[in-house]
């Protein structure tokens, strides 16, 4: 009863704190539907970046022909531009017309697939276009225009990947981090505020890259994930996947993750591939093997220059039967208004829209129980309480 009252009070305080914080800073409104869009090329396909679907996208022309001109409704000012890209082209400019000439007021030059671009006061019309000397086109899955004010919480404003991580989560495909690792990310990133870096070996299609960003943001991650370049392949044997990906290339990828982000704890998938997926097996196998390689100063590989050796303190594998640990993802969390890590993981999985026709789900029971892990490696001794990945870590 006491815990229930405390949770209720925490939820009320959280809600009141949000309202107080917003009182002096009005939340921006999505005014996209009231804006007028004009383009130089493919005018009939502009709807593709306005339909709320990642499977459809707009492809611009190149150079000056890439321009997308946006005119706001009378009485409105643009506070920000929210873009979800299918592919990234550097040096995209946002310009406003001034004295019959265009002036660049913002440049979008991050490597991220999702950007929020703040705009200066007084913008009632603008255009988005590529630098003239930059080859290629703009491929935009979704574009939204917001009024002045604070962007809504769902607008993703990504920070750079971490310099030092408390926890590194390695996922084979988008959604594996939720289906098989359960509440790991919402609990440690969202609730406890740990520095959590997420990496994917196989980002797969442009659609799934955007879905994984939606899922991570919902779970409380704010530092951009690492997106590997390994092709999506299915096989049942580790050797099959290693032949396609290259065992050395995979080792270098994982060792780089360890040395770049210097995590205290690593959590990844099952050595048996959960349901036998060879790619899951290969990633878990590499995560285990590379603990010693990353700490070995004599191990050098492509892409590792300038990175010092790093000793991971603890590595947990999903469903590993030795030194088992069972996480309780059903505890109400303050950061999520009383929802549990299990609840948030399920909600985040639903944001992987392309994967909802399959048979997989977020389950902390059954053969793929996402609450079960085993301590594969430790420099700080065995777990005793067995309810926290950070047990014994200061």
Short recap of the structure:
The chain has 394 residues and is of the alpha+beta class. It has 8 helices and 16 strands.
Task: Write structural notes for this entry.
The structure is a single chain. By secondary structure, the chain is of the alpha+beta class. The chain folds into two domains: 32-147, Galactose-binding domain-like (Jelly Rolls, Sandwich); 167-378, LmbE-like (Rossmann fold), CATH 3.40.50. The protein has eight helices and 16 strands. The protein has helices at residues 2-23, 176-179, 184-191, 206-219, 238-245, 247-261, 278-295, 341-350; strands at residues 36-39, 58-59, 68-71, 78-87, 92-98, 101-108, 114-118, 125-130, 139-147, 167-171, 196-200, 226-227, 265-268, 314-318, 324-326, 372-378. The strands form three sheets. Strands 12-11-10-13-14-16-15 form a seven-stranded mixed sheet, with helices on both faces. Strand 13 (265-268), helix 7 (278-295) and strand 14 (314-318) form a beta-alpha-beta unit. Mean pLDDT is 92; it is low at 1-24.
Series of H and E elements: HEEEEEEEEEEHHEHEHHEHEEHE
Shape category: globular
Strand content: 15-25%
What quaternary form is this? single chain
Instruction: Give average pLDDT, whole number.
Output: 92
Using only C-alpha atoms, the radius of gyration works out to: 23 Å
Q: Structural class given helices, strands, pairing?
A: alpha+beta
How is the CATH topology of the largest domain named? Rossmann fold
Q: Portion of residues in helices?
A: 25-40%
Outline the low-pLDDT stretches. Answer: 1-24
By CATH reckoning, the class of the largest domain would read Alpha Beta
